[in-house]
Amino acid sequence: MPCYRCGIRQVDPERGKSPWRRGVLQDHQVLVCPACQASTDWAAELDHCGGCGSAHLIRRLGQVECLDCGLVRGEESWPAPSPPPPPPGRRGSDPALAAEVARALERVLGHR
Ligand SMILES: [Zn+2]
Ligand SMILES: [Zn+2]
After folding, report:
1. How many Å lie between the centroid of ligand 2 and the Cα of residue 33?
2. Whose CA is closest to 58, among 33, 21, 16?
3. pLDDT at 105 (0 to 100)
4. Ligand with the closest atom to the CA of 10
5. How many angstroms is it from 9 CA to the middle of ligand 1?
6. Ligand 2 midpoint to CA 50 (Å)
7. What pLDDT does 8 receive?
8. Measured between alpha carbons, how far is 97 from 39 in angstroms, rounded to an integer?
9. What pLDDT does 35 receive?
10. Tens place of pLDDT per residue across the chain (112 aa)
11. What pLDDT sits at residue 24?
12. CA distance 63 to 72
């Protein structure tokens, strides 16, 4: 597979660590040669992971997988990122519940 920008072909054997970078451009697997990596903002042109924003993606079996966070995208679009879990300590934001918890805690501590 040639470089998607300049069309140069990869001469190194596929095995081992290649300086070429893989990426996904408009749902197509592409390769970026070392020269284009150095001379262009290639990562900005490629598709990005919907989870972590990385351009380090591979396409296989009709899906796009992020090599950084492992998120897999199907045919349509990235799944909506799950909302971050509430920070600890904010669960008792309901004042009535908080008072209840405080009273229960008081009872427990008082019986010690
Ligand atoms: Zn190139
Ligand atoms: Zn990612």
Report:
1. 22
2. 21
3. 86
4. 1
5. 8
6. 6
7. 94
8. 59
9. 94
10. 899 999 999 876 656 778 899 999 988 999 999 999 999 899 899 999 999 999 999 998 889 999 999 999 886 666 666 677 777 765 556 788 888 888 988 888 886 5
11. 93
12. 7
DSSP-derived letter for residue 12 is S
Distance 5 CA to ligand 2 centre (A): 23
DSSP string, 72-95: EE-SS-PPPPPPPPPPTT-GGGSH
Which residues, in sequence order, are bridge partners of residue 21?
32
Predicted TM-score (pTM) above 0.70 = no
Beginning with the edge strand found earlier in the chain, give each strand of the sheet holding 72-73 in spatial order: 57-60, 63-66, 72-73
Q: Please report which ligand is nearest the Cα atom of 81.
A: 2
DSSP secondary structure letters along 13-74: -SSS--S-EEEEETTEEEEE-HHHHHHS-HHHHS---TTT----EEEETTEEEETTT--EE-
- Residue 101 neighbours by CB distance under 10 Å: 13
Residue 2 contacts residue 10 (beta carbons within 8 Å) = yes
